[in-house]
Amino acid sequence: MENTLKTAKTWLTDFFDPAIKKEVQHLIENDQEGLKDRFYKNMEFGTGGMRGIMGVGTNRINKYTLGKSTQGLSNYLKEVYEGEEIKVVIAYDCRHNSDSLSQLVAEVFSANGIKVYRFSELRTTPELSFAVRYLNCHAGIVLTASHNPPEYNGYKVYWSDGCQIVPPQDGEIVAAINALSYEEINFEGNDELIESIDTEVDEAFFEASVAHGDFNVPGKDDFKIVFTSLHGTSITAIPEVLKRAGYKNVTIIEAQAEPNGDFPTVESPNPEEPEALSMAIEKAEEIGADMVIGTDPDSDRLGVAVRNLEGKMEIVNGNQAMIMMTHFLLEQKKKKGFEGNEFVATTIVSTPMLEAMAKAYGVTFKTALTGFKWIGKMIKDYPELQFLGGGEESFGYMVGDFVRDKDAVTSALLACEIGAQAKANGSSFFKDLIDCYVAYGFYKEHLISLTKKGISGAEEIKQMLKDFKENPVQTVAGSKVKWIEDYNTSVAKNVLTGEEKPIDIPKSNVLIYETEDGTRIAARPSGTEPKVKFYISTNTELEKAENFKKVDAELDAKIDRIKNELQLG
């Protein structure tokens, strides 16, 4: 507590605004726990950049923490690109203070002689990723906390390739930030270096999205879509992109169309949560729509609901959406003819089904750590290969390489193409998914996400993962554990034979058990939220589509057994 108090008192100097000093003094005198939580550490960069609760303190998103990060990034850019005219582009989402914080960030960049393109109004994260390369910028920033609760905001950093920063670059930037004192932040902006952007970049982005996501499938006139932006940024892009691709039957949920950082109609603006899409699904049932699409606040995550075998709307999970999108892209490429250099990609906690599918098509398959920055890095690392598409279980997908992050705009269009074509062929999105299970194996996944807030929560997460590693599971649902993959040590060990193999992926706090029957259990802490996550993947053969319900129930029962065995119910 002594160090925390010492840190807090540094915020009482004349450099800090009077209101800030007053609040810090109040915390010192009246709220020791609040003081500790705000000042016990510096805000850290995770898988999605810097994200946290807004407020006073080193462990909060505010003028000074963002200013310091921007000053450190400015210093780093000037060192790496010495002698060049450095350019950055900034976007922001619907969250409280995103507009003003983005202006603050622009002023710090400009105060350091850096040219700034700033979107005049809120825009999607995929458009920011696109804009970095379109405007030939050295870096990009988006002010967003993605799907986190209303009290959060964040700061994602993109590099010149349009991809989020990865090691060792992120570490070098963090070092440049940590080397600074708050008093070294230059807040004196230069308006001549800040340029507002809007329709020109919008137009280019819309054209690129349609070019990558529109395959001129039949049945568009007869395909009914319900769309919700969940109070976020996708309202600026998805309706226009769908219109340009020829979709006329699009019903927008007006009560959720207005951008609002309070997200008043949902408990969480995260399409991974079924409740978030409930209003759109209700409307779809009412009007007989074929598909529901909904996005998170910055429009990188996409939720999709389609009609199941009973004709009821059902949300497909991120793994299922990824399988369908990749299968569609592979089929489209097959029609044109494979060139032999194509690849698809996913992450280590996503469904193994994608690898089985890639193998069946003779296409290169690559896997990465959680986070689209790692998939984006593959595109840069393997310029000789052609990236078709890739995704992860957390409702994200990337179509081609024109955006180097998960992109709910283009993947929303792609989902509609899949659904419209299936309906025109007398099938459906859901029936085509079952056909994929017959062809490549029936893989079913389940995610358990446990929230542990604050300092004690961080310690609890650390201990849970330690226990998971130090007390290894020997069997899962009656099948012996064969492989233990430890991404902290970069070693995969066959516990039945003693064989060890190196893991050629950067180190990360992830542990995966794989059994003899192919069941996989993965554990990792979230990089953006106070959560620990456990991923369960099971699989079996599905001989024919008519057996789907029976086999689906069997896999559900197996997942329940695994949850009970691991005491994760």
UniProtKB/TrEMBL annotation:
Keyword S-adenosyl-L-methionine belongs to the record: no
Lineage per the UniProt record: Bacteria, Pseudomonadati, Bacteroidota, Flavobacteriia, Flavobacteriales
Name of the protein: Phospho-sugar mutase
One Pfam family named in its UniProt record: PGM_PMM_IV
Keywords: Isomerase, Magnesium, Metal-binding, Phosphoprotein
Domain of life: Bacteria
Gene3D superfamilies (UniProt xref): Alpha-D-Glucose-1,6-Bisphosphate, subunit A, domain 3, Alpha-D-phosphohexomutase, C-terminal domain
Organism annotation: Pricia mediterranea
Family membership noted in the UniProt record: Belongs to the phosphohexose mutase family.
An example molecular function term from Gene Ontology annotations: isomerase activity
EC category: isomerase
The Alpha-D-phosphohexomutase C-terminal domain, residue ranges: 507-545
